[in-house]
Amino acid sequence: MLTRRSLLGGAAAGCLASVAGAAPADMPLRQRAATRGRFYGCAAGSYQLRDADFAPVLARESGVLVPEYELKRLIVEPTPGHFDFSGADALIAFARAHDMKMRGHTLVWYAANPGWLEAAVLAAPDEDILTGYVTGMVRRYRGRIQSWDIVNEAIQPDDGRSDGLRNCFWLKRYGPTYIDDAYHAARAADPNVQLVYNDWGCEGGDTWNDRFRAATLKFLEGALARKVPIDALGLQGHLAAFHGSVNQGKLRAFLDEVRAMGLKILVTEHDVDDSGGSPDIAIRDRAVADASARFLDVMLDNPATTDVLTWGLTDRYLKADGGLRSMFSGYSPRKLPLDTDLRRKPMWYAMSQAFGE
Length: 357
Hints:
The longest helix has 19 residues, at 207-225. This protein has one domain: Glycosidases (TIM Barrel, Alpha-Beta Barrel). The chain has 13 helices and nine strands. The chain has an eight-stranded parallel beta barrel, surrounded by five helices. Helix 7 runs parallel beside helix 9 (177-189). The protein has 357 residues and is of the alpha/beta class.
């Protein structure tokens, strides 16, 4: 299928000239996205706001902010009934001061939980440990957070269930209705907030990705038929430059089916792993930009896509391990739009071009 970007010899190679021809070359991503009625944003931690070099760049480039980890239950409720909102509140204050939207991530997940939670859930006499938490969090940030990832990564076809759901401790204790209950609790706590289901694995071309897309569509169709108040699907967009690739045709067809359900679509955690590639930074940067371009070319072609968030803005705060092995020594990740010195990389220009088309 011929796409906008298939006409280019390589996204990174043509980015500077194309962007310069369509808009001022220094137009920040948030402004570039806004010219097409979209939003660009990124994840951040409150500690990053203390970086005097980075904070103004964050405010300039990003129109949406999501806490990288400071709204996950591991941080928010480290011990039962004792809450720490300091990090999230600092990020929200920064967002409000710089006219940024705020996303919440995430309320119900099988991971990033305090050590006490799983045993408490399995022993819980009722659903309050689930719905009470969702209600309290959404109500606390009512009017300050515009979009919430209510349930995160609840689908896992490899677990062998006919419904495709992940066999996590939430499911073991409450059954599949734990998802419905979480969304209903969130809607009751804030009738105006956008409620998102967030997951990954829908952009690749492997057989496993086919099964994941099918399971995701089945889940969404069933939830909407049961009147579960899901407003949008969040696709994380964690890609790899040198292993695996985006299947544009399959992703396009999948997004069309999601849009036909009446759902909005968000890219919630985009980055491109560059491990396993050449030690030549220019080659790696070009591969990262091309992978991002292939993904966003399809995502932004769909009118239901409203937001694109990267999982961070700069490589400055990345660690070299990330759970992935590099093939050369001295590897430093280059998976985000800005480098460690806050300079724009080919990925930034690829994203700017994608927003402008």
